[in-house]
Amino acid sequence: MAKIGTPKLWIAIGVLAVIFLPPFVKYQELRYKNAKLEERINYLQRDNARLADEQRKLETDINYVEKRAREKVGVVRKGEIVLKEVAVKK
Predict the structure, then answer these.
(1) Residue 70 CB partners (closer than 8 Å, separation 6+)
(2) Which of 5, 62, 66, 84 is 20 to 30 Å from 22 at the Cα level?
(3) Residue 79, by phi and psi: left (phi above 0), alpha (psi -120 to 50) or beta?
């Protein structure tokens, strides 16, 4: 019958596992958190660019300002007639 290993070998493997496994698990957790934070940073950078573009339009494009005022606040020009769509309940 063949021996699988000596007790000293198994003890050495156990000690190495106890020493190196917790830092490795912590490393994997930190890599996961880092990936999630990088995703969040990318999302925020895209959103920031979108908001900067909208700010630029609001500061320089009078047609865009009028469009946004009509959409958000319901601003109408003098003499315009507002038509509202009413949903019919069935």
Answers:
(1) 76
(2) 5
(3) left
